[in-house]
Amino acid sequence: MSIVPRLLEFNKKFVEEKQYESYLTDKFPDKKIAILTCMDTRLVELLPKALNLKNGDAKFIKNAGAILTQPFGSAMRSILVAVYELGAREVLVIGHHGCGMTNLDTGGLVNKFIEHGVDPLAIQTLENAGIRMDKFLRGFENPEEGVMHSVKMIRKHPLFPHDIPVHGFVMHPETGNLEVLVEDYREEALSPLA
Ligand SMILES: [Zn+2]
What we know:
single chain, 2 domains
């Protein structure tokens, strides 16, 4: 059976019993931070708990690997909106050990597309149009490299403000331990975290 009926049943009860009341907040991040991190299931609750982040504290942008693959894609747009529209004053990129995007087997992934019914000709057509599968699907050699790639791409983005620090971290997916790769306080005048 699909999980959706169970989700809907729970949801109805959640709303009826007003369980949402302890989560009420607004769209502006209270701690004035935006976090680009991985969609990994192990981080869903662990990351906020390990950093003492509550509902309303931070804008979360998630994808596979916390990677910015292109400067004008949706992840970068989300970061820009978080900063310019929603008051984020610092950006944290948080990768993690044991990430599925480490040494992702792009060839193997393409084979899975085909096993699941994708026409190899369609893949060839995309390749011919310049959509290289190895580039589109690429991960990174280690999480540190992935995080630093994203940090650098945000920092040098032509639309990103120079006075907003961009920090890089790697989290342990079991203990929640956070390793600092780069703590980016370039500007002395920055206001501290709320
Ligand atoms: Zn990951």
